[in-house]
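Posting for a labmate who doesn't have an account.
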Amino acid sequence: MQADRGQWSSRLGFIFAAAGSAIGLGNIWRFPYIVGENGGGAFVLLYLFFVVVIGLPYMLAELSLGRFSSKNPVGAIEAVKPKSTWKLAGLLGVITGIGILSFYGVIAGWTFGYIFKMAAGKVYGFEAFVADPLWVIILFAFFILITTTIVYGGVEGGIEKWSKILMPILLVLLVGLIFYANSLDGAERGLAFYLEPDFSKITGKTVLAALGQAFFSLSLGMGLMITYGSYLSKKENILTSAIYIAIFDTAIAIMAGLIIFPALFAMGEDPAAGPSLVFVVFPKIFMQMPYGLLVGSFFFILLSVAALTSTISLLEVPVAYLVDEKKASRKKIVWAVAGFTFIVGIPSALSQGSVDFFTNFGLIPEFLTGPDFLSQMSFIFGDFSLAFGALVLSIFMGWVWGAGNAADELQQGSPGFVRIRAVWMFMIRYFIPFVVFLILLNLFGIFD
């Protein structure tokens, strides 16, 4: 193992880092509005079911391949099947990491900017805010800089160290905001919508939405868990660690709903407000609340911390690839990858009204996504590339490497895995590729 690679120093550090990679704006921004659009409690139960039967088994496969090879996604595939075209699946994961970080960092910058907008009471005019080219690029650059500084410190001294700091901060902020939101008059109506399932609201669309959310919320499909798994020792119990990661990720999403729905119903707002929920609807709500400016500032600090735990892992995937395969120095390559990602992200930063060309880019048809460059990048890398990568990787892990070999790796350090070995092998060979294929078809509106 190269000196530059590093290894997790503790199980807790690995779990916090891997859970942090999964916990992001998808849990605190996307999850609540998807719940709101799909009927509340019944969707939540479906989501939890799919995390257990789809997300967790697939995560185990990625972690096992990473630990087996001690490599990034490309190197892991090369270790199993040398000089084959299968390594393109790993390369797709590396490119996907850069692609997602390029637009995700822009949105993360908005959340950081809103901390100060909230504190100053200037929360209106979201469209004008994201159309200001100077501020969005400064905020984007700031977020990339913070992310780069952490990844520069390496696996143990950077990612693991900061994950142990950021995750407890995230949990404290969540718990505090939950208590506050549920103390508001009318909050119980939001809890009823969120926690009492109405199964009459379940449709095929609801099932597919829950399936996609469960899969994507765990950061699966771009080899991120392969990369994090590559820093594990052979003694690590992958099964219990993966369960803890899934519990952390899911708990954060559920806790976010315990803030958002009580607050929405207490203020008489629509739970199906869509993507504008966090940046348009919620600031308006905060302005009407007791201590609203302070609470709102803490809410956007929460979002920024969640975003940072994800951007760290998104940068680590391409960095690990270049450290492993090109024998590059981590210290040098981190800045090079971050600089390249920042340049790639500038069109997304300028696509919300700053530059008409990027605002109405329109390469992908509007029935699939919005015409702006950021939305197009989100569809290509945040939706399609993840699903397609997951489909190819699941086939590779289940059939080319072989479910038996993957199961053997999982059993090292995880004696309890033997009880579910046969079921897991069936899932990774047959069920998961089929389900991911359905997610892929759904992205293109096939079932509409």
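Reply:
Got it, the structure tokens are right above this. DSSP finds 19 helices and no strands in the chain.
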